[in-house]
Structures are given as C-alpha cells and as structure tokens.
Amino acid sequence: MLSVWYRAVQARLYRRRVPPRVPFPSDRLALIWTRDGQPLWSPKECVQDGKYYAESSEPYTISLFLESLRPGATVLDVGAHVGYYTLLAARAVGRTGTVYALEPGPAEAALLLWNVRMNGHGHVRVVPQAAGDRVGSAQLCLSGVSSMHSLGRHELAGAWQGSTTVGMVTIDALLAGRSVDVVKMDVEGAEPLVLEGMQETVRRSPGLTIFSEFSPQMYRALSLDPEEFVARLHDLGLEVSLVDEWERRLVPVPRGKALATYDSLFLRGHLVCRREG
To answer: pLDDT tens for residues 202-241?
Structure first.
C-alpha cells in the first residue's frame, strides 16, 4: 500500500512541473491526452489536431492493439518514442502485468520516463536502448522529427541532424527466458533486426501477437528485404496480416506477396502477426 501511495504522490508532483525537466526546449513540447485519458508530453511536431500523430495515421491499429491487451499480460513496446503505446498498455494490463518500453533516443527516453512516472505506472520498465540482432552498441541517426530517429538514413525523415552512439540489446537477452503476450515494434526500418534478436522469445510465447510497422522504403535504407522479413514471420509460425486503415480491416499477407499487398492498399497500418491456430 505504501508503494501505491508513493507512486500516486509522485504522479501528482510530475504533473505540477510544467514543462517537464527533459532535454527538449519547453516551447517544443505540448501536453496532450491518450485515447484512454492519460496525460502525455510530446514534441509538438508529433501532435496533429491536438492528438498524438498515431491517432491520425493509424487509429485502427491502435484499436486492435488495445483489443489484444489483457490484465496481467506482458507487453513489449519496441521503439516507444515518448510513450503513447506504453501508457495505453500500462493501464490495460494493470499492476499485475509488465510493460517493457525500449527507446534509444536520449531525449525521447527521458521524456518517456517522465510520462511513465507522471502517470504512476510502477510496472513499466523503461529501457533506454535500441533493440536489434546483437548485444552491444549502434549508431542512431537523429532526425529533425523526434519520432523518426533510425539506425539507417531514409528519405522519409526529412533533414538529418547527426548521429549518436546508443546501446543495443536483443529481446531474447532482455527477457532471459520469459514469454511475452504482445509486442509492438516501430523502429523506422529496423524491425527485421529486432525480429532476429527475439526468435527464442517468439517460440516460447504461444499466445503472442506482434504489431510491426511495415515500411519497404525504410528497410531498403538498411539493406533489408521486406519479403524476407514477412517470410521469417511465417517461418516462426505466425499468421501475417496488414492493417487496412481506410477500410478498418485486416488483409492476409501471403508469403512472397508482401509488397503486392502493401501496394494494393490506400492507407496502410502495421502488420499484425498472430500464432497460427
């Protein structure tokens, strides 16, 4: 009971500090709200119509993500940015669940931690590292758009502003034998590398659902093949679909048809991958 009281007091204190003490200029930040009513500090370039940008670009994906969450579940938010999906997961799984939020951008990780503490989520573990296919370090390319830092420079991110060395961990090493229920990956083209580093976790997680950004243009910046990525998901026993945000439906993605399926849709969301059967 004491720890619950402490987190509640801590959350109130964080909400009083405006703006938060993080490595962002105060005039670059905006206080907005998640779909379920939690406060979230975000860089202004990631806010559209008073909401976090994902609510405009991938609203059905967010709905599917929320539907996949259960009390007590273990969730991975890989590429958590400032914590939008993290906060949604934290409230849905409750204090009996666990959320791991991985974000390598130094300023973004600091703001992520602030948002988690502001909302009193003591069951969220913030990991300020990149997820990938090995344990060590990597160069993170910094975009002028906070949500688009990447391990490879692609044309969608606008002007690049240098790079920084960040730690890298595999999901298999991070979880060390534990299973997971839901994974959300949004790492600007490095999703195939994350998958390579979590194969054992996928195999030991029978009820797993993976939400993964799918961007062929970003994969090519890292010399990665989008068809091989989808084939690997199939090899791991997962049924793969692509979110059609325009029609609010899931479209199956057969092996070898990932690009054709992607190009056939007007407004694409994430891949949704579930265990077959």
So the answer is: 999 999 999 999 988 888 878 889 999 999 999 999 999 9
Q: What is the pTM of this model?
A: 0.91
Whether the CB-CB separation of 137 and 167 falls below 8 Å is answered with: yes
Half-sphere exposure of 11 (CA within 13 A, CB side): 14
Query: Are the beta carbons of 20 and 29 closer than 8 angstroms?
Result: yes
- Give the separation between CA 149 and CA 79, rounded to whole angstroms: 10
Q: How many residues does the chain have?
A: 277
Residues facing 77 on adjacent strands: 101, 184
Contact 256, 227 (CB under 8 A): yes
Q: What are phi and psi of 81, to 5 degrees?
A: 55, -120
Provide the β-strand partners of residue 169. Answer: 131
**Biggest CA-to-CA distance, the chain:** 55
End-to-end distance of the chain based on CA atoms, in angstroms? 41
- Asked if 34 contacts 56 with a C-beta cutoff of 8 angstroms, the reply is no
Instruction: Quickly name the fold that domain 2-275 has.
Output: Rossmann fold (3.40.50)
Q: What is the pLDDT of residues 33-72, one digit of tens each?
A: 999 999 999 999 999 999 999 999 999 999 999 999 999 9
